[in-house]
Specification:
Number of domains: 1
Number of helices: 7
Number of strands: 12
CATH architecture: 4-Layer Sandwich
CATH topology: Purple Acid Phosphatase, chain A, domain 2
Distance between the termini: 33 Å
Strand order of the largest sheet: 3-2-1-10-11-12
CATH class: Alpha Beta
Bound molecules: fe (ii) ion
Largest sheet: 6 strands, mixed
Radius of gyration: 18 Å
């Protein structure tokens, strides 16, 4: 008689908001665009706070820990320019570990980048998976299955007014998310939702928040999920939101490249091990010289 097959655990590294800066090859004509001029000034300031070398360290750790996958929940770039995206894609390819991404508001910084679906075009290979429909508008959510684990990539990214950093999932995407979560739940998969913006009420300031957070929360409450991972606020955010059978843990990670040493804002990444319905996390924090394991327990798990 055949032994019952053991599901394969999935081990992945989660980081976010790496904001890799590259203005190489950006011609002066681009700066005639007002939004870009403001953006470039902002980014040059921001460049002092984010260090790409920290992302290189994260990649080294991903290799040392021999993870199956690296997951990045948005704001890979600053201005959503082709040159930035090319730089980032080359970096992700060089990792030689499979990578999953979802976009953040900075990856949809200009209307042009959104109109040309620049992020979806250039990062397509990191967002392969199952979709409900094959129209470009059906691109999100996408589902990547790893044995009994499903990573579900949701987009909140769209170009917003200057100084606004809001996100929206949108009614149509929410409908697809609802159907996907229901079907994957029925199959008994462990569902990990990847989204850029925080999903717990009161966490983000207005002009920085998820506009349809309530409608997203209703889908999660109705269909359930086992874990939600996000970024955006550049600080550690942890809690739970109502689910179907149990509350759903929400882990917001700070930026992976922020040089800040303020508690909760220091650069961080987490390593998850998802084995059946059991999920473990090890959080690693930047101490000014290196990433060190944090004793902070994982909220909402187990
Ligand atoms: Fe960010
Ligand atoms: Fe963001």
């Amino acid at each position: 008689m055949l032994e019952p097959r053991q599901p394969m655990p999935l081990r992945f590294l989660h980081c976010s908001d790496i904001h890799l800066l590259s203005l190489r090859g950006v011609g002066p004509r681009r700066f005639l665009n007002k939004r870009l001029t403001g953006g470039v000034n902002l980014m040059l300031k921001r460049g002092k706070h984010h260090d790409e070398a920290l992302f290189d360290r994260i990649v080294e750790r991903a290799r040392e820990h021999d993870v199956d996958r690296v997951v990045i929940t948005g704001d890979l770039s600053n201005l959503a320019l082709e040159q930035e995206f090319e730089h980032i894609v080359a970096k992700l390819d060089a990792i030689e570990i499979p990578v999953t991404v979802v976009p953040g508001n900075h990856d949809a910084y200009t209307r042009g980048s959104v109109r040309h679906r620049r992020f979806e075009q250039m990062f397509a290979r990191f967002m392969h998976g199952e979709r409900l429909g094959d129209h470009p508008d059906d691109f999100y959510p996408f589902v990547q299955r790893y044995d009994e684990v499903a990573l579900i990539g949701v987009s909140t990214a769209h170009a917003s007014l200057p100084l606004y950093a809001v996100g929206t999932v949108g009614e149509r995407q929410l409908q697809r998310l609802d159907r996907m979560l229901e079907a994957l739940g029925r199959e008994g998969l462990t569902r990990v939702v990847l989204i850029h913006h925080p999903v717990m009420p009161g966490v983000s300031k207005r002009r920085h928040d998820l506009v349809d957070l309530k409608a997203f929360g209703e889908v999660i409450a109705r269909r359930g999920a086992e874990l939600i991972l996000h970024g955006h606020e550049h600080k550690a955010i942890e809690g739970v939101i109502p689910g179907l059978e149990a509350p759903v843990p929400v882990h917001g990670i700070s930026s992976g490249t922020n040089l800040s040493l303020h508690a909760g804002r220091e650069a961080a990444f987490s390593i998850y091990r998802v084995d059946g319905r059991s999920i473990d996390r090890d959080l690693h924090l930047w101490d000014g010289r290196d990433f060190k394991p944090s004793p902070r327990p994982a909220n909402g798990l187990g």
